[in-house]
Amino acid sequence: MSTNNTNKKKEIHHANVLIGKENYHDFVFDILLNDLDFDIKANPDFLFVEKDFLGIDDARDLERWVAGKPLIGEIKVSFIVSKSITYEAQNALLKVLEEPPVGTYFFINLDSLGGLLPTFLSRVRILDAFLVSESENIGESEENNTLKFLNSKIKEKFAITRSLAKNKDKTPMKELISNLEEIYYKSYNKDIANDTEKARAMKNILTAKIFASTKGSSPKMLLEWLSCVL
To answer: Which Pfam families does its entry note (predicted)?
Structure first.
């Protein structure tokens, strides 16, 4: 396998969640083909599951699938589409989502963030098909601005928000919300599983990021809300 493909693999988190009722099949398949060099056609190492609700039995089936070695290559991919996952199923999947075998990737499409446990959220990366932003793509100035917002007191956060809101273009505010998730993930990922406060903050950032991508949303109001809850 080429060095380029190896480098691309490192950019893809092993456990990814997409939120919304849209059909994300093409979006996920493009990632698999372009970033992982993984073709789903007639591939026994590709598992597709589509169910209204994912329960404990489904989670155990997924655990057994994870335990098996790839049949034709070095990569296994599971794409799960479901309205929601039960608490029992989430707890059962914590271990495999945190430390799956090398080359195992999960893509989970859910209707909403509602009902997701902080411990579950701490082990996945939220992908936004409209505002995909990997940490490697955040420029130095953007990262500094995001860190400044994250580390500021509430009054300073409001000042940053007001400054950005003066521009009719909402893109910088949306980018700040999106970048908060990347910076927070890099800084606190190891602490989230055992720190309820950080897990709650991460969930709030993810919620704001999802809402920021919806039509008619107010990035200014979302940033003001994050100013109060972070």
So the answer is: DNA_pol3_delta2
